[in-house]
Design a protein that fits this description.
- The chain has one domain (3-50).
- 59% of the residues lie in helices and 0% in strands.
- It contains 3 helices and no strands.
- Helix 1 (3-11) packs across helix 3 and helix 2 packs across helix 3 (36-45).
- The longest helix has 11 residues, at 20-30.
- The chain is globular and about 25 Å long.
Length: 51
């Protein structure tokens, strides 16, 4: 999965800047992403709105 897609979903109104656990939970319902938690942590760690 493209990192920019995870970022777009995270910033979307539907996801509302969900935290790591919530993002992984939601994404895993729709996508099978190798190293999902690591990728989500990296992307959310760079989210200025969340920090």
């Amino acid at each position: 999965m493209r990192p920019d897609l995870i970022k777009e979903l995270h910033e979307s109104p539907e996801y509302g800047h969900a935290g790591i656990e919530e993002m992984v939970r939601r994404l895993s319902k729709v996508f099978a992403i190798p190293r999902m938690r690591t990728k989500v942590q990296e992307i959310l760690g760079n989210c200025l709105a969340c920090h």
